[in-house]
Amino acid sequence: MILYFSTRFTKKQAKLPRPLQAKLRERLYLFADQPFAPILDNHPLHGKYVGYRSIDIAGNYRAIYEPIGDDAAHFIIRGTHPELYGT
Predict the structure, then answer these.
(1) Which uninterrupted H or E stretch holds 87?
(2) Which residue among 18, 27, 48, 83 is the one 20 to 30 A from 65 at the CA level?
(3) How many CB atoms are closer than 10 A to CB 47?
(4) What structural domains and CATH numbers belong to the chain?
């Protein structure tokens, strides 16, 4: 699986606490190898994110991506559930 990252996604990387940076890297490596591993809870989104999917990173921290065919994904944004979905 080929992973692409939006500028918005990567720009905030350095601002994350180190443990969360490590968890994000770990989950992205897992996603690249096994996109539907149960721990990722990979699922489709609705509403303003229709056509996108979300994976779990840690706790209520999520990463949203757009599938590109069967072998690529474009990660567009990451954040806590309330930051992303307003709930």
Answers:
(1) none
(2) 18
(3) 7
(4) 2-85 (3.30.2310.20)
